[in-house]
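Memo to structure team: turn this sequence into structure tokens by end of day. - J.P.
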Amino acid sequence: MSDVVVVGLISDTHGLLRADVFEALAGVDRILHAGDVGPDSLLDELEVIAPVAAVYGNTDAPGRTRLAESLDLVIAGRTVHVSHGHEVGRTTPETLLATYAADVIVYGHTHRQLVTRVGERLVVNPGAAGARRFDLLPSVARLTISAGRADVALIPLAG
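Reply from structure team:
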């Protein structure tokens, strides 16, 4: 296993996979989708880049076997929690940190890209990668875990 693991983070595609996502996430080891996916065919398209795990968002139809309620993973020695964020009520880094014990918490829902570090813990919203809403620019993120440290880079997509 490599000393460096790079994970693509994406959320709120709502059925739209922009062409520049393929360049933005090229070379990642895996992709985590934080909900409001749209149809399963979108996950098939992302699988061209890397293996994908995805969670339900508040607009995803229930009963879909490819979507989990949440994901709790260990990646390169760091714990990673992925959920859409709507399940905690007011979706803020403080609420998420109080609710989940993971080293890295990945969420969506608000469509606002955000990176918050509290000590060694990291809260990441990669922003919305789908149709532009709320005058927010679309984006994804790359999470890099190396030597036990997690860092993230937000990547803007063409608006």
